[in-house]
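ok new one. same drill as before - structure tokens go in, u give me an amino acid for every spot. 133 of them this time. try not to just spam alanines like last time pls lmao
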């Protein structure tokens, strides 16, 4: 049986960001799930059981911080969450980190840095959805 692809949920209201992340992550072999706002992001997280979430800080219908809080409050399994924002204010990053964010990306982000963050949180040999040989 072939290992299943790790799932990454991308929550962002910016179409260009969603498209860019989907392209990068799909090329790397991830199964990408997209959501355009916080409410849709939480619904997709519950329904599709991603292995990693990448969420914008400022999104409609439910802020990225509210999504982060909800995901971190889950007790079923630990779900890594990367927060991102176009804001240069350190207080946003600090707030996200204080609430349990596992990574931070500043938009527009540097692709090599983005890849390092992903690999740190979802290493190839330790991806939760991969079947063990």
């Amino acid at each position: 049986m072939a290992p299943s692809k790790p799932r990454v949920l991308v929550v962002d209201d910016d179409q260009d960001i969603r498209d860019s992340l989907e392209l990068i992550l799909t090329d790397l072999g991830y199964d990408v799930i997209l959501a355009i706002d916080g409410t849709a992001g939480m619904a997709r997280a519950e329904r599709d059981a991603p292995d990693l979430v990448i969420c914008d800080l400022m999104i409609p219908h439910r802020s990225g911080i509210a999504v982060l809080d909800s995901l971190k409050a889950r007790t079923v399994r630990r779900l890594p969450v990367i927060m991102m924002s176009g804001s240069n204010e350190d207080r946003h990053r600090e707030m996200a980190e204080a609430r349990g964010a596992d990574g931070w990306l500043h938009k527009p982000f540097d692709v090599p840095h983005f890849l390092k963050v992903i690999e740190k949180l979802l290493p190839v040999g330790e991806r939760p959805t991969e079947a063990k040989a």
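The longest helix spans residues 15-27. and btw The longest strand covers residues 7-11.
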